[in-house]
Amino acid sequence: MPEIKEADKKKGINLKEVVDGLRIYRFILPYKWQFIVGMICLVISTGVVSVIPGGFGRLIDAATPAKETVENISQVIKSSATPDGKLSQIKASVDAYASGIKPEKLKDIGILLGIVLLIQAFLSFVRIYLFEYVSQNAMAAIRKALYEKIITMPIQFFEENRVGNLTSRISSDVSQLQDALSNQLAFFVRQLVLPIVCIPILLTVSVKLTLIILALVPVLVFSAVVFGRFIRKISRKAQDQLAESNTIVEETFQAADVVKAFTNEAYESRRYMNINMSVAGIGLHAAKYRAGFVSFIIFAMFGAIVFIVYAGLNEVATNSITMGGLIKFFVLTIFIGSSLAGLSESYSVLQKTVGASERINEILGEVSETKVEDEHLNDLVKGEVQFKNVHFSYPSRKDIHLFSGLSFNVDAGQKIALVGPSGSGKSTIIKLLSGLYPYQEGEILIDGKNVRDYNITALRKNFGTVPQEVMLFGGTIRENIAYGKTTATEQEITEAARKAYALEFIDSFPEKLDTIVGERGIKLSGGQKQRIAIARAILRDPKILILDEATSALDSESEKLVKRALDDLMKGRTTFIIAHRLSTIREADVILVLNKGKIVEQGTHHELSAMDRGIYSNLLKLQYDLE
């Protein structure tokens, strides 16, 4: 299974990449009607906006002196009449102009503009709410699908991908999609629709000035494409570094006790600072391109505005357009200019969205090991186990063979102990048996049926594990015990805790079963966590029980009590005991001694300890000497 890599060697995006990336928006299909209505409101409101400049123009023209009035006043000033005569003639011209202005007309135009603004406000409200409704629900569905996909992946997926990178996919990448859907999509559509609506209106005002505006469009579009090419590459790199910083945070917080035990707070702080400086450096690198592009846009747009004002005033002077027409043209030009300038930002967001979609689709396209809908499946087994000539290499180290022809049989209800040095394959046998790793050759049978032929979820319901390093979730003691059987009753949980000899310390807490254990059970001692894990296994009631040094963290008195509980739990179950302390496996039916992936000795404790030069007997003597 390939590791999820963040590197991006491409310099741009093509249509196929856009289509593949935007496939993620299939999650909005259940809300398509809300989305369609929101899009209709967006398009209509964009069209309504283009009406407003025309209203302003009409207001100005209605209150601007008519051409004839201005010419009459000019002629009076140039005439040879006496000052008193000129004054009376000018007054007559102004009175004639004032009588021509109709307040009712100005009022009607004002009311019309008010109605247009109310319509615009209503459409904007509906559009924003509907887009947010679609966005919130669709992103919740994406997060659910992404989480379910990750949690159902095989164990090697988690070995090949760091937790910080995976959580970054669920958090930052989905947030990027949500921003694009709820905000940037509306901006992008408006920036496309507004010029399409406004340019024909501009042509009706002045063809000459409109051609000046259109000459700028190719320059801005080309600049946006070139700018977006750099932004995509840099933003992907920034996302990689950000995910790496998240990984450092998660790892150090989860292993805070290790960090403090080795007094490496300063080292981890420097490591985190280095990665953050790298993120900042990438951001500054991107800022140079963004600043250069914005500077160019400012120069181009303001230069164009100055030129349009100059050319427009000349048009007014030659009576080609009215002052109201020039204002109308000027406002529409600002709308178009802001839309074209915003296209670059929208394009860069599109680049980021495609990149985020690619990473999410990459995970969603992986083949899951299990299905969440198989939760209620159950396939009870007796517990007879056979390994037949099994060959296995770890997926990440295929050239190194751990097992080459491993074979052994276990009868249902037997207690099998696995002994050997670290790396000999003890834990791997359990992982192969439960289907956590796929083996390459041979057969692993449970009740005569190949493990590959079982539904993996139904098969694993027959397993219960008490690990050496207990992993508890950050909720209550009740929730952690009930993890073995999520439908357990209060009575069943309490009885499991009693059988694990955990009830005594649980009842000593004020909140009892509702006591919060803290992150990874940090508020409990090692022995307390171990007994909760045992209670969880008791509640599980498995057919195949895995004990990985289950009593290693207990004191002598607790160990004696828990051993009695485990003895009761092991009755009638096939039990695999991974042991380092050989004193805990004396009563095993069969002991398998492994070394370098091979079974070198096999027998009971009595048989193996009687072999003078045997590995087991030597290990036994060494432990007795150490004790």
In terms of topology, how is this protein built?
Layout: H1 15-21, H2 32-49, H3 51-62, H4 67-78, H5 83-100, H6 103-151, H7 155-160, H8 163-205, H9 207-254, H10 256-261, H11 265-317, H12 323-364, E1 385-393, E2 401-410, E3 415-419, H13 426-433, E4 441-446, E5 449-450, H14 456-460, E6 463-466, H15 477-482, H16 490-499, H17 503-507, H18 526-540, E7 544-548, H19 556-570, E8 574-578, E9 590-595, E10 598-603, H20 605-609, H21 615-626
Helix pairs in contact: 1-12, 2-6, 2-8, 3-6, 3-12, 4-5, 6-8, 8-9, 8-12, 9-11, 9-12, 11-12, 16-18, 18-19
CATH topology annotation of the domain at 15-63 and 101-364: ABC transporter transmembrane region fold
Do you know the CATH architecture of the domain at 15-63 and 101-364? Up-down Bundle
Mean of pLDDT: 75
**Amino-to-carboxy terminus distance:** 45 Å
Tell me the radius of gyration: 38 Å
Can you tell me the overall shape?
elongated
Strand order of the largest sheet: 6-7-8-3-9-10
Helix content: 55-70%
Q: Provide the structure class.
A: alpha/beta
Q: Which sheet architecture does the biggest sheet show?
A: 6 strands, mixed
What does this structure look like?
The chain has 627 residues and is of the alpha/beta class. Among the domains are: 313 residues, Up-down Bundle (ABC transporter transmembrane region fold); 79 residues, Rossmann fold (3-Layer(aba) Sandwich), CATH 3.40.50. Helix content is 63%, strand content 9%. The protein has 21 helices and 10 strands. The strands form 2 sheets. The protein has a 6-stranded mixed β-sheet with strand order 6-7-8-3-9-10. A 4-stranded antiparallel β-sheet has the order 2-1-4-5, with no helix packed on it. α3 runs antiparallel to α6 and α16 crosses α18. The longest helix is centred in the middle third of the chain and has 53 residues.
